Request: fold
Amino acid sequence: MDNRTHYLWWIAGLAICGLIYLLGPILTPFLIAAILAYITNPLVNKIDALHFSFFNNSFSYSPSRIIATLIVMLLLLALLLLILVIVVPLMQKEFLLISQKLPVYFNTVKNFLEPWLLKNFGVALNIDYAQIQQIVTENWQTAGNFAKQIALGIGSHGLAILGWLANLILIPLVLFYLLVDWNVIIAKINHLLPRKVLAKTVEIASDIDAVLAEFLRGQLAVMLLMSVFYATGLWMAGLELALPIGVLSGLLGFVPYLGIGLGLGLATLSGLLQFGNLNDLIPVLIVFGLGQVVESMILTPYLVGDRIGLHPLVVIFALMAGGQLFGFTGVLLALPVSAAIAVGFRHARQRYLSSNLYNG
Reply:
């Protein structure tokens, strides 16, 4: 490859990176679909390769690629529904606790806040707590009011909601086409590669594939360990809903900020309703604080970082840099992209050590 071609490849690569950066806000559903396609493609290949024989081999059936894709997407949908089955009852129980324990909660707030307001501002809280409880209960139990609020929300934020729904619909649509044509896309990419670099490119791609597989295994281990940690820690803190909140916080940790945000919010709300005392909430907050330290400083760097060949400091820097450059999508892709770059650097290092420039 001459210098001119070499420079053209570099220019093309930089142009693609710049285009990805500029299109970042609309790439999220495509990136999510591509990640899911990469993860589930091996399963689609296995289902596609199955061969069934019936009635002493007089009748045989092999599922097509489209059928295999639909089966895998149904499995993903079932997994999503399973998570919702955990989340929805949990949220329902939380709201029921709110409506039942509002007098206790209001009384706790009044006992803490009213003396301070009287002392510093001479203001008394003349609030009809029973009426507030009645209003909350009625609105919670009346589906018409709930639907009305949803309709008002859609009316005032219609474009934003339509955009969000469009992205949500795009994910399964893009995922379907990617899974159906995944092997064809890879074959076409291989066909377009220069023959001189084909073998080396396939070797690097295989190494990246192995590293990303290790990343997924490491991330799964982190999720399971954090589920056990949060459930045990919240149980020791005396929280009644320790098991569902702990498991939910750990499993959703795969999505940055979602697991800790949702878990902390639910645990705080549940603790306030259960204890009625801010001091008793401190152990719950300590559990989530320790959980973040354990996950970000110990489990993720060593279970994920070691498996993908990255130093713990590189893992932390990659997460921060990805979030700064591309927001949520950047954090989600930081470690896989860093792992792929690390594989490229290892091959470049081997080539450099065997070059005339190094050996002089």
Q: What stands out?
A: DSSP finds twelve helices and two strands in the chain. The chain has a mean pLDDT of 75.
